Amino acid sequence: MAVLFARPQSLTEVPFRYCPGCHHGLAHRLVAEALDELNLREKAVGIASVGCSVYTNEFFNCDTIQAAHGRAPAVATAVKRARPECFVFTYQGDGDLASIGMAETIHAAARGENISVIFINNACYGMTGGQMAPTTLPGQKTTTSPRGREAAREGNPIDIMKILDALEGPAYLSRVVLTSPGKQAAAKKSILRAFRTQMKGLGFSLVEILSACPSNWRMTPVEALHYVDEVMAKYYPPGEVRVAKEVLEG
Amino acid sequence: MKDQVELVSGNRAVARGAIDAGCRMYFGYPITPQTEIPEYMSTVLPEMNGVFLQAESELAAINMVYGAAGTGRRVMTTSSSPGISLMMEGLSYLANAELPCVIVNVMRGGPGLGNISPAQGDYFQAVKGGGHGDYRTPVLAPWSVQESYDLTRTAFDLADRWRNPVFILLDGLLGTMMEPLRAREPVPERPAPSWAAAGIFARAANDQAPRSIYTLHMPEGSLTEVNRRLQAKYKEIAREEVSYDEHFTGDAEVLVVAYGSVARSALQAVRVARQQGRKVGLFRPVSLWPFPEEALRTLSEKVQRILVAEMSSGQMLEDVRLAAAPSCRIDFLGAMGGELIYPETILRCLQEE
Hints:
The complex is a heterodimer of chains A (250) and B (353). Chain A is of the alpha/beta class and 250 residues long.
């Protein structure tokens, strides 16, 4: 009997502990499938970050190094420069990447470090119970913006694609969603392109995945899914923002 | 190369010591009075197929050290007081993850932005731990350009031997003054240790399980166990890695205790005092952690008075008080905010019974 669907080699057998409807599980799977398809598992060093992502070192079946909050791009920079033959990726949330880690994110991208960043954007701080993040949308209620985010009071959100697209360093930047099988397939293509960017030595790659956080959005998983498509994706449009032409070649 | 003597600064000696110890990775950031180190590394390392990167901040630099160390490379960073403060988070992580590396603080006046003059105000930060949690790092304090080179080389071996970050404390005077340096035969970088996380493919066929370098220990009791293991290690380090230096202590009735560049002034003062017929000696801790408690205790039982000289408000002073016999009189000569301690000042203190 043919096996049509199995756990990717690049995932361990540890059961995920993410919330029902959380997109971390899907994202992990797509990243792992990409690692498998490109035969990267054995040379991979994944940099786990802080947030719900702190557990990724238990779920990815490759070497991992758990970085301090926000510091993953700096850790990844050093790992790749120390061991250039390794495949180095980070897995970070929006608080980690765009708040405390903003300097590390921008500078690794500006330097064009040959690493791949998987950026899970759920517009809040998930692990700690749903506080406001730099990517929290205008009007969005969180536990530290209880009246709904207002520019005058809480400031404006940050669009990481726009910030990184202002730099020369990045070779591949894209934003995806996981709200349907078709969109998941497209997301995986994007992740594969990001990983190929590193394999070809073309420089910094980042895939932003707009993700549902039903628990902290106080929504059902289905409502959260719709929120990603109907609200988040309107503010943060999915698409490939930058593709170095060599990424598309052979 | 051997028998060649060069006139270099303490900063340069630190950099040379690292390179001669086989360190090929350096992450740093400009800050007075140690900028000469990253500048030198930026010239030399690429020529040796090494990696030099000026990080976006000291915060980034120490996290780069964490990454490189995690993959089993020898790696160093250097900074000065305000920058070292930024590295304290990283240091706590390095200590938990038990990653070898060398961190050098060329101390300047503080607190705050302070000034760029020499100081010894970061003793607490280095020895008692500036980062959070129950951790320790060996702390070495050279007092000459030659010793800056030698102790840097030693630091890398210590770091590997104990799987621990190792701190080296210089001050702005030591970092910028120039003295003869006799470098020793350099060694190549040692291979990656067995615990390194550098990809499954880097390991033998029977060692293919993925491994993780991490510092979060949530399962009940697990963090307690990590701490117990760390404390056991620190106990062993305390037994084995004490180092100190003594001058004229054999029949001393008064003991000056000082480290780093202040010990140079102290030695001069002690020499003059001896010429004046005073029985004075110098005790110079070289390892600030582990502090040479036993040796100091023994001496304190024989002398009538200890004079601690430090460019601070009295930080090593507390460890001297802890170590010394309760009956021993302890006086303190301090200097703060970048003020230096001259031999004459110490001598005057010795002359005032």
